[in-house]
Automatic annotation (TrEMBL):
It is an enzyme of class 2 (transferase). The keyword Transit peptide applies. Its EC number is 2.5.1.47. Pathway: Amino-acid biosynthesis. CDD domains: CBS_like. Residues 8-300 form the Tryptophan synthase beta chain-like PALP domain. This is Cysteine synthase A. One of its GO terms (molecular function) is cysteine synthase activity. InterPro entries: Cys_Synth/Cystath_Beta-Synth, P-phosphate_BS, TrpB-like_PALP, TrpB-like_PALP_sf. Keywords: Amino-acid biosynthesis, Pyridoxal phosphate, Transferase, Transit peptide. Its cofactor is pyridoxal 5'-phosphate.
Length: 326
């Protein structure tokens, strides 16, 4: 018998895929963890399940309760799927700049979606602070994915060990971009615990401070990126103490070229952060040489960003590459 226990039984245990085109570019083996195959369509289903399960265990989320979270969308989608399956309501606060597809999905799932202007973290109107205040005012549970380390603990217990075991212990390096830092920190901790020689590297878009934090000790953010769900200007509790060896900066143009090649050459339709991750994995593989086995995260699918990443009318005014077949 192989019967999953409801929706939550289908989260995680995603396939690890050898990416042929990317491996040829890198001159070594590049592996992608197919997180777009989670039921809510992204790696954030894992964080949602970990945050909810931890809150239930601590008794801070009661039967029939409400979950509030600030999110670029995917964590909200994960929380609403798991919330529906376990009898919780969700209030999701999201910057209005995020993709229409994610907003539509959240409404479809039944989330109470509150869109707010995209302002920096230091502004009290930032989506994270708005979500915290709603939780305080209503007595609901604030998931707090950025600074609640149940997030990275989930990746330490599932994503990291899966990558190590599925590669048969052959993985030599790992790279991923940072939103909350839960994925990068949790996976890196699990891999280093199994083999301290595994190189763990942050992939960082423009407009994010993680590259400078790792290179100089101070997060400094310059420029901007059209990718969603990644980029961070501070050291979150989930990122703090992550065993990282280096950082790689990837431009939007480079990530888009990788996304289009992954679709045309390997048949994979992926989102922007997966483009950043695979671009960084290729460069890391080129640095490390032909024996390297570099794993990364295919965070979500491209249909969620059709109106942006695969839309020439959106890309051309930004002077960004467009899908060659469109
Ligand atoms: N990619 C996408 C598409 C995301 O939504 C997120 C989460 N914000 C990430 C990557 C980053 O994951 P994490 O929060 O674990 O750093």
């Amino acid at each position: 018998m192989d019967i999953k226990s409801g929706l939550t039984g289908t989260i995680g245990n995603t396939p690890l895929i050898r990416l042929d085109w990317a491996s040829r570019q890198a001159g070594c083996t590049i592996l992608g963890k197919a997180e777009f195959l989670n039921p809510g369509g992204s790696v954030k289903d894992r964080a949602a399940l970990a945050l909810i399960t931890d809150a239930e265990r601590r008794g801070v989320l009661k039967p029939g309760g409400t979950i509030v979270e600030g999110t670029a969308g995917n964590t909200g989608i994960g929380l609403t799927h798991v919330g529906n399956a376990r009898g919780y309501k969700t209030i999701i606060v999201m910057p209005e700049t995020q993709s229409q597809e994610k907003k539509d999905t959240l409404r479809l799932l039944g989330a109470d979606l509150r869109l707010v202007p995209a302002v920096p973290f230091k502004d009290p109107g930032n989506y994270v602070h708005v979500s915290r205040r709603i939780a305080e005012e209503t007595g609901a549970f604030w998931a707090n994915q950025f600074d609640n380390t149940a997030n990275r603990q989930g990746h330490m217990e599932t994503t990291g060990p899966e990558i190590y075991d599925q590669s048969g212990g052959t993985v030599t390096a790992f790279t991923a971009a940072v939103g909350t830092g839960g994925t990068l920190a949790g996976v890196s901790m699990a891999l280093k615990a199994r083999n301290p020689a595994i190189r763990c590297v942050a992939a960082d878009p423009h407009g994010s401070g993680i590259y400078d934090w790792i290179k100089t000790g101070t997060p400094k953010a310059e420029g901007s990126s059209i990718t969603e769900g990644i980029g961070q200007g501070r050291v979150t509790a989930n990122l703090d103490g992550a065993p990282l060896d280096d950082a790689i900066r990837v431009s939007d143009a480079e990530a888009l070229e990788v996304l289009y090649a992954l679709l045309q050459q390997d048949g994979l339709l992926l989102g922007g952060s997966a483009g950043i991750n695979v671009a960084a994995a290729i460069r890391l593989g080129q640095q490390l040489g032909p024996d390297a086995v570099v794993a990364t995260i295919l965070c979500d699918g491209g249909a969620r960003y059709q109106s942006k990443l695969f839309n020439p009318d959106f890309l051309r005014p930004l002077n960004l590459p467009t899908p060659p077949w469109l």
